[in-house]
Each structure stands twice: as structure tokens, then as C-alpha cells.
Amino acid sequence: MLVGVVFLAAFAWLAGARALKGQNDFAAFYAGGHLAGTPDLYSRPANMAIVRKATGVTMPAVVFIRAPFYAVLLKPLSALPYRLAYAVFSLIGLASAVWFVVRFSGECPSLPFFAAMSIPVVDALCDGQDTPLLLLFLGAAMLLARRKRDFLAGLLLSLCAIKFHLFALLPVALLLHRRWRMLAGGAIGIALLTALGAIMNGPGSLLDWIGVLRDPSIGFAAGVMPNIHGLVAAVHADQRLEIALAAAALGAFLWTVSRVESFDVLLAVSIVCGLLVNFHSGLSDDVLLLVVFVAVTGNCASLPMRSLIALLLTPIPWFMVLAGPPYNAVVPAALLLLTGFFCTLRPGAVPAYALRSDHAH
């Protein structure tokens, strides 16, 4: 693990002064916090003015594009000087990732090793992204679901709405399994967050947000996204291949969730298929594969499947993503193969963590 930490430190060093100064995506969150409660929350000129003042540079693509409620939650950070706010935000993200690794290392002993050399994790931290927070929300929801506290798990899952497009399939999985209490918790959580955003920013902020999401300037270049959209762009194929691959991923998702009961597996297959079929994702979003790794380790005895997800956590595929087309097609292709492996899971398999718990008693 020490080797992995040294490797990640060297990788982070390459980010240089930009990361240390916070000249990254955190500036958009800081601007959103500042503009929360004003009619300028989604104003590009207002966002750019705050970003320029805070960072000393102009970053046209770095503007607040998240849901209105998130700007309200970020408001306390905006009261701090920019560098201090950035340090607090980064420490919260790092603590979330460390908590997840420590908490689940008992049932997944190799998790610290793979997390220590995770390029998506270090990219998220160096780029001022909030995806490490998802590890906290998802990990805590998994633990609550295991204890049959589905309503609270659903409330926690509602916080994943900060990156809602990555979790669009999870409600479908819960609905098919009639996890009504979890769905109720999630629905109430979403309703409360939406109300918070509308009350603080005005009901028109929801329409403004939808308008921002339709702005093509906020997206990644298609050829660098580690999803089906990026795969098709990388190999210069047409839209028919994208539709076919998305349909295959969704078919694998529906087949898998119809056969398994474990919430961990439902979450894992929802994450993998969500990463594949969304239209806006970057390297840092794939920190979610750590959650998938825990679920696969605890629920699947297939050596090829476990080996594939382990390989996805090594630096090798992410160097290929960074190399650009056509090499970046490797990650979405591997995720498609992983969805195929999910289809082979036996219904009703007993999770490994449950077996260890029974043995302990």
C-alpha cells in the first residue's frame, strides 16, 4: 500500500501549482455557495467574476452547474477565504474516502491496496471534485441496508443527487424489488432538498438549472469520457452502435436486478450501468468503482469477474484513458464486459460479509 501512496503522490505532483492553488472545479462550488440565494446563481458572468477573484485566473468552463439545493449546502464554505474553504473541502473529501476504505477493509482486505493506487481518487482530490463524498453516502447506505434500516438508507442515498445522472438506474432497481421504505426515504430526501433549493434560490432556479444543463459548453469532450458515448467517439463509430451498446447495458441491468436480492449487488450494477449510459462523466466519477469492488468481493465467487474489477482499479486502464482516443475505449469496454459478468450471478447468493458475521456468532 505504501508503494501505491507514493505513486499517487507522484501523480498528484504532476498537477502542480494548479491543484495547490485551487485553480480547479472547486472554484465553481465556491461560486455557487456565494451566489446561493441570489438571482445570479446560474449567471455565467457572475460565476466567472467570483472564480477569477478567488483563483486569480479565468476558467470559462468552471461555473456552477449543480442543483439549486447544493449551492445552499455549500454556503458555509463560501463564508471562508477561498484557500481555507478549499482546504476544508479537500479534507472532507479525503476523510470520506479514507472512512470508506477503513470501514470496508475488514470484508474486503485488498481494498486499501487498490484504493492507494486509484487514479480516479487522486484525480478527484486534485481537481477539486466532490465524488469522494459519494463514497461516504453510499458506504453508509450499504451499512444501513444490511441492518434493515431502509428508510434511513434512502434518505442518505438522496444526497447522491449531487451527481444524479450517475444514479438514474438505482430507483428502477429498488422499484423492481419493492424496496418501498428505501424508495420512500429517497423520495422524501429529494423532496426536502428540492424544497430547500427552491425556497432559498426561488422556484425559478429549477428552470435556470435545467437550462444550464442543456448548455453544450459545460460537457466534456466526447472522446475523453469513460462511458459508451466516449467509446463510440473513440472508435469513430456512428450513433447506431451507441444505441445498441446502451440497450445491451440496460438489458443486462434489468436481467441482473431481476435475479439478485442483495442491495450491494443492486447498487453495484446500477453504478456500473449508470457510468456506462450517462452522457456527462469524467475520470473522477469512477471512484464509484471502489463501491463496486466491495460488492463484487462480497457477493461473487467468479474469479474472472473479481479479476476484471480489480484490474479496473489499477493505474493501467486509466493511463489509457489519459492517453485519449482510441485507447480510452478500454475502460467502457471493460465495464460492458463487467455487466455481462453480472448477468451470470446466481440468484439468492449469500453475501460473504453475512457468512463471516454468522461465523463470528
Could you describe the 3D structure shown?
With 361 residues, the chain is an all-alpha fold. 68% of the residues lie in helices and 0% in strands. The protein has one domain (13-356). Helix 17 runs antiparallel to helix 18 (303-312).
Query: Describe the biggest sheet?
Result: none
N to C succession of SSEs: HHHHHHHHHHHHHHHHHHHHH
Helicity, as a percent range: 55-70%
Protein structure class: mainly alpha
Distinct helical segment count: 21
What's the Cα radius of gyration? Answer: 20 Å
Question: Segments where pLDDT lies below 50 for 5+ residues?
Answer: 355-361
Number of domains: 1
Mean pLDDT: 90
Tell me how many strands there are.
Answer: 0
Task: Tell me the span between the first and last alpha carbons.
Answer: 31 Å
How would the global form be characterised? Answer: globular
Query: What percent of residues are in strands?
Result: under 5%
Write a compact overview of the structure shown:
The chain contains 21 helices and no strands. 68% of the residues lie in helices and 0% in strands.
Note the main attributes of this structure.
mainly alpha; disordered C terminus; single chain
Layout of helices and strands:
Elements: H1 2-20, H2 26-35, H3 44-55, H4 68-73, H5 75-78, H6 82-104, H7 111-115, H8 119-126, H9 131-146, H10 150-158, H11 170-176, H12 180-201, H13 204-213, H14 228-234, H15 239-257, H16 263-277, H17 289-299, H18 303-312, H19 315-323, H20 330-342, H21 352-360
